[in-house]
Amino acid sequence: MAPPPPPPAGWFLSLFLLLSLAAAAAASAAVAPEEEFTEELLLRPLPDRKALAHFHFRSSAPHSAAAGRHHHLFPKAISQLVQKFHISELELSFTQGRWNYEQWGGFDPMSTSNAKPPGVELWAVFDLPLTEIDATWKNLTHTLSGLFCASINFLESSTAFSAPRWGFKLNEGNLRYGALPREAVCTENLTPWLKLLPCRDKAGVASLLYRPSIYKGYYHSQKLKLRSSKSLGIILDQTLTVVLQPNTVSSKQLHSTDRQLQPSWSLSDLFNRKLSGKCLVSRSSRIFLEIDKGIVDKVNESEFDVSWDNEFFVLSTGPDRVIKELNNLKVQSSSFYEYDVNNYSEDMPLDVGITWKLPLIWSCTPSPYHTSRFLMGSGNERGSIALSFLSTNLQKQIFGSSNDCSIKAVVFQVVPWYVKVYYHSLEIFIDGNRKTIPEVVDQIHVTPSEDKLLPGTLEMLLKFPCSMQSATLTLDFDKGFLHIDEYPPDANQGFDIPSALVSFPEFSSARSYPDIGSSLGSPLLQNFQEGGIVKSYTEVLLVPLTTPDFSMPYNVITFTCTVLALYFGSLLNALRRRIGEEERELKKSAARRGLIPLLLAKLRGQKADPSQSGSPPESVRSKLLLKVIFVAVVAVVFHYLSNNN
Question: From the CB of residue 126, how many other CB atoms can be counted at a distance below 10 Å?
Answer without folding.
Answer: 22
